Predict the structure.
Amino acid sequence: MSVHDKDYRENFARSLFLTGKITQETAHALSPRIKELRAASGDPITLYIDSPGGSSAVAEGIRFLIKAPDQDGRRCRLITVVIGTAASAAADLLALGDYAIAEPQADILYHGSRQAFEQLLTFEGATSVAANLQEANERLALRLARSSFRRIIWRVVQLKDAIEKFRDGPEGLEELVEALTAKFTPENAMLLREAIAKQKSLQEVKTAADNYLKKRKNVAQWPNKQLEPELVRAIVDYRSRLHKEDDWLLSRTGMREVASDFNLIHDYASQTKDLDAQLEVYGSLFLTQAQSAEFKSKSDEEHKVYLESHAADKLDVLWYFVVSLCRLLQTKDYQLTPEEAYWLGVVDEVTGSDLQSDREMIEMILSTESATLAILQKWHRPL
């Protein structure tokens, strides 16, 4: 008996179509239908996408309107489906769906934030625009990383030989990523290799900052207004030593590097609770066979401590890799096939493919349970 789970399936009866450029007019056109669907029931809403992108702020507004709690506190699950093109802000919207689906003919395109001007810019204006675009890219990259992280965990555990080496220790990440590049075109495989190089650099910055701060007393009790300047000093100290042979100056590119490092470390600290939750759910996937057997012998109270000791470092480096990857997606044009988007964690499922999906796993479990229940009901039916 086949069981369908509405949380993982598109539903045309409760659907919206996002086509053309994403503008404020797009939001105005979709809003009445969104409110109508939300009022009708709390079932998931399907958003079909065929868009070259547009305003990221408007796209986020549409997503918020679909998912925001109603007066009774009920939230709505969003299923996104790319049926043609999902580029720029539309690609971000696709990935931020609770369950994201790509049809086999779809194109997914990423690039950094852009802004068009009808008048000439002054130097000051151009500097301000550059800073705003950089901030927007960083914000979008971190949001995409949070959305993609869970999916990428399920992708890498499918890489049988490489995942076993990664389970031995976080130093196996490079080999794991190299195995992942086999799923991509040569051009897009370079994206992953560049991301692993950036991940190493980011990990080194964080380690250097941690070591710098450990020399300070009671740093864990410091208020943010005391901690943040010290963190900036730690990053400047690291960058200065790293570039001691270069003509590296804060007044040139240095300040942007420091700000980027600061934002990443600061955001990482704010994501500690999320990573703790991820560790609790997925940490056991990163244990060796021997560790897994030992883990199972522990009590529920001991599980968290065990995972922190044996899996947290692997989850950490994987998180930094995903952040680096999502940052790079915001820098230049990257055109992805549906299969590449799947392996990159942008989508959960490619229709008609043999790629593993959450839907198939969930529905298989539900079908097994349903069949078992039917058998029990048959055997226990009164005569």
Remarks:
- The longest helix spans residues 123-156.
